[in-house]
Amino acid sequence: MKLLRWGAVLIFCGVVLARSGSLLQYAAARAKPLSNPTAGDAEAIRAGAKLYTRECAECHGADKQGTGRAPALAYELVRQAPPGALFWVLRNGSPGRRMPSFAHLPEAQRWQIVTFLQRMPEKAPGQ
Question: What is the rounded distance in angstroms from the CA atom of residue 60 to the CA atom of residue 107?
Fold first, then answer.
């Protein structure tokens, strides 16, 4: 009986830690090997930007700087994340973090959003 109680405590602690950790870290463990078939493609970046505006900007902000509803996406962690982790988050969402699933979008469109999020930042004029 004592072992059963300790098992329940460990499961509870694992759930709490998983919820408090980064969603990208959680996703990366499950989807890291997935590679982005549209990585670096200029057309995919443009399509991803349109999809981002339509599907994501309301919560994450038009400039990806975040809002009170969702975190910023314009930072190095997102740009350097395994593409499969971002794809996993788009496909599965995270109800505990109020992130909906975007599984209703075709797979190609989800990859376009990933491509947009991970594009290289534009260089300033003269660089």
Answer: 21
